[in-house]
């Protein structure tokens, strides 16, 4: 979707950046006007403009630009949602990223100059408000359904312990999606998620309507630092959540105690390198949060070192490429 994908020279990258905010705005406009849902069936700009009370000529420019980005296909003057984009951009798509796309930019984008000057350009997040947790839950579920769970399942299914695993624990799960996928794919397994009470209640609500697989997923509501997790887990998973450990080594030691003999603790987090200037996805993506005083990224090797300090006899680490950036996988055994 970039102008010159083969040219990574500085001028080409700078020129491309002029377009980047426009690309994002086009997607945002597509969501705001439900263009992607409407174009599940082909329509002309005039058809759509009449429905939306917009000017057909101007709408045509927007639709052409979305077609240039290969999110729409234009043929004989009619536009339709590209097949490849459909599961992600339709509201009812099985992997709809709509909730993620409408919430995450509010956190990631910001007035960098104002934040740099120390002016608080945005209202602080109110973690006591139900709306905060609703938005987080919708955003995380969308992230997990659209891309997170697929990448995480690929990691889990690559573990040598996975075929014989029976009990799975997801610490700081954020949604039921990963555990439900485990339960659906593996009728011989049960899963447990731990999350803070407001998130746990939203997860439990979804599981209630998730049928037989949902009944094999248990929810523990509480702060993972203090709550009892039970024990005997074959695989304990923690992704993008260890920032909230009060004492990382103590939390990992707790995970180790909760493992069954032969079990494995698996962490998937960024691992910053090059003096915290790489990978770009995480450094730039988390810039606004960092400027708001919420910078929480791990350095590469930090989790592996904490696993050793927590008593794991064997720690293996490798890089994992995902649609949402490069990550470091750290596994603790023994
Ligand atoms: C960024 S999300 C990550 C969700 C998911 N693991 C993933 O990889 O996408 C962090 C999750 O950790 C949960 N969390 C944060 N602090 C927690 C704590 N002290 N105890 C339990 N869960 C916590 C949040 O509610 C949220 O669901």
Summary keywords:
334 residues, 7-stranded mixed sheet, alpha/beta, Rossmann fold, 15 helices, 3-stranded antiparallel sheet, binds S-adenosylmethionine, Arc Repressor Mutant, subunit A
Give a quick precis of the structure.
By secondary structure, the protein is α/β, with parallel strands linked by helices. It is built from 15 helices and ten strands.
What is the CATH-assigned architecture of the largest domain?
3-Layer(aba) Sandwich
- Tally of separate domains: 2
Q: In the CATH hierarchy, what is the superfamily of the largest domain?
A: Vaccinia Virus protein VP39
Q: State Rg.
A: 22 Å
Largest sheet: 7 strands, mixed
CATH topology of the largest domain: Rossmann fold
What structural category arises from helix and sheet content?
alpha/beta
What secondary-structure arrangement, pairings included, does this model have?
Blueprint: H1 10-32, H2 35-38, E1 43-44, H3 45-52, H4 56-68, E2 72-75, E3 78-81, H5 86-89, H6 98-108, H7 112-116, H8 130-157, E4 167-171, H9 177-185, E5 190-195, H10 197-208, H11 211-214, E6 217-221, E7 233-239, H12 248-258, E8 259-269, H13 280-285, H14 287-291, H15 302-309, E9 314-322, E10 325-333
Parallel strand pairs: 4-5, 4-7, 5-6, 7-8
Antiparallel strand pairs: 1-3, 2-3, 8-10, 9-10
Helix pairs in contact: 3-4, 6-8, 8-9, 8-10, 12-15
The structure holds S-adenosylmethionine.
Q: What would you note in describing this structure?
A:
The protein has 15 helices and 10 strands. By secondary structure, it is an alpha/beta fold. The strands form 2 sheets. The chain has a 7-stranded mixed β-sheet with strand order 6-5-4-7-8-10-9. It has a 3-stranded antiparallel β-sheet with strand order 1-3-2. The termini are far apart. It binds S-adenosylmethionine (SAM). S-adenosylmethionine (SAM) is lined by residues 140, 148, 172-174, 194-196, 199, 223-225, 239-241, 244. S-adenosylmethionine binds at residues 140, 148, 172-174, 194-196, 199, 223-225, 239-241, 244. One of its GO terms (biological process) is methylation.
